[in-house]
Amino acid sequence: MLLPVIIATFSGFLLIALTFIVGRQRRLADAALVGLLIALFLSLDMAGLGLLERLGLVLWQAPVSQQLPGLLLEVTPFVLFFWVALLLTGVIVVLASRSFLQKTDRNIGEYYGLLLIALVGMMLVAASTDLFVLYLAFEMASLATFALVAFRKRDKRGTEAAMKFFIIGVVSSAIILFGISLIYGVSAHVASQLPPQTGAPAATDLRFLGTTLSLGLAQFEPVIILAVVLLIAGFGFKVATVPFHMWVPDVYDGAPTTVTTFLSTASKIMGFAAMFKIFLIALVGTAGQWTLALGILAIATMTLGNVAALPQKSIKRMLAYSSIAHAGYVLIAVVVGSHSDPAIAAFGLAGGLYHLLVYVFMTGGAFIFVAMTATLLIGERLDDYSGLARRMPLLAFAMMIMLLSLAGIPPLGGFVSKFILFWSAVQAGLVPGSEWMVSLAVAGVLNSALSLFYYARVIKHMYILEGPKEPVKVPTPYSLALWVALIGTIATGVFAFVFIDFVTQAAALFFG
Amino acid sequence: MIPLEWELSLSAILFAIGLYGILVRRNAIIVLMSVEIIINAAILNFVAFSAYTGDVSGQVFALLAIALAAAEAAIGLAVFLVLYGVHHTVNLDKIRILRW
Asked: Coil, helix or strand for A336?
């Protein structure tokens, strides 16, 4: 069942070793791509494609839903969804890196190796059933990304970004660890009071934590609240919610752009996978203590992200703030997912999952476009994009589609996912006791309208303003990565029903 | 046996010292040391809770967390070394090419 993870791990280490044999960067990228595509195919097959089964190779019954208790892992549709999203990110980033990395760049094998190892850590975060395993996998991914940001060792901006990212990253993980230690204390104490039985789960099993924490809530309320505050702060740093977002524009701006793409998509997806698991399974019994706080954070995050993106002249910085705003939208799913009505909770979570999938394509694609213009020496500022539609008609069109999807224009993927998210918040608001959740939907809609302003400004520069006219030749890997992102953005909107079926089922099983 | 409150107080004090160091000190290496102090506070919590409830998984995780702290320090020092090579300082206030 863990075949995709095993293949990704194996190819990650193989790539580091291959550096000494294969001199050419492009060959290493191809090797990484092969590993990722095999893992992606296997994950899709497990998620319900069932192609191997039809070919007579029965490894599993699709869709796979299985616990692996000895490893403290599970493979369920929820997990497979995250695997597919993460591996897709990996494919897009590796394709773009193939052209982004220059001849002068060194240690290319380590670059791809670290990328794959980070992906493995992220996949294990999604698959973990135990708080300790989740934390270890989380750290595995974080440590690999710290090194990735510092990849260009002679670059002043890159090293500064790496320093900021590292300090923020270790502080947040230390805070999370302290929060986990408090939760462990409460859970272990409550578990030791329960009548002893054989085969009882460990005190840190996520589902068992849901029971022990709600039993211990009356006695240990202050401790649990302190732990929740620490966890919100720690994960807030990771997914960049508002009071903890200051590092994002600097790090995203300074890091090599393909690494920025990886951070803004894969790293954020991992943060949300961990948040869904911890807040919606382990801490769900104590939901009364934190839903309102997270709701306020969600509204503040989307508003500040969008307002701060308005005056930006650098496209990379603008997209960084836009990714903060999108973290705010997905936070709605964490809030609605804690709702007492299981149908509404599953619907909200499905919206969050779907938004993360669409987000991979649209934000990933937009960052790749910026990486491409930087490689082609066009530049990363808004003014550099003037008249770009004449110079690369097809790719400028792809960028326009992705920007419109980010703003939430139908019939693109961004519209569908935002619609499900906001609609779930409205439904939650119709239930007495959680009326305030409507404000999440209102804030989301207003913010989407606001965000259209700065997305449309880029389109105006590309299509209406005059600029240099000579056409440019775009390297094929960039075009391929952008085409994958474009097809994904459109397909998640037009063929939404296929994906929605899957995510609703995954969300329902997640709570079940 | 030392009461649990004493150990928790010690770990709370360590946490506060670490947080103070992160917020106030501007030398990157001292900030890294402060982070390690917070991690040690959490490790102390794990061991204390584990000893008082008889659940051994906390002690196992404490060992893993120590290994993790070492890995973090290794990556951090590598990043700071590269930083020093390019910027010739590890003072966090003096490195500001990227503006807010």
From this structure: helix
